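Milestone M4 deliverable, item 7.
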Amino acid sequence: MLITPEYLFASVSGITPAFLKAKGIAALVLDEYVKPLEEKGVAFTYTPAACKALVAEAGSKFGARDLRRTIRKRVEDPLAERFVAGTLSGAVTLDAVEGRLELV
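Output delivered:
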């Protein structure tokens, strides 16, 4: 079993670092979309409510894998469809209205 420094730190100190929390992980994954979209002329932003909604939708059965899968299905796929259709331009914001994710 490989024990990462982050896991060791969390278990020894009794605290959970921010980057290990689900909403923090959602933000890290969403941040991966900013630069590639910026290179295509699209400004991508997201709200904390969107991160919270993604985490709630993903559940916690398989942890970050579920979250990554949910982000791919709810964010990456719709963005790719818009890009292929030629309707992705300007600025796109991922937000959650009443717990529902929306790309505006």
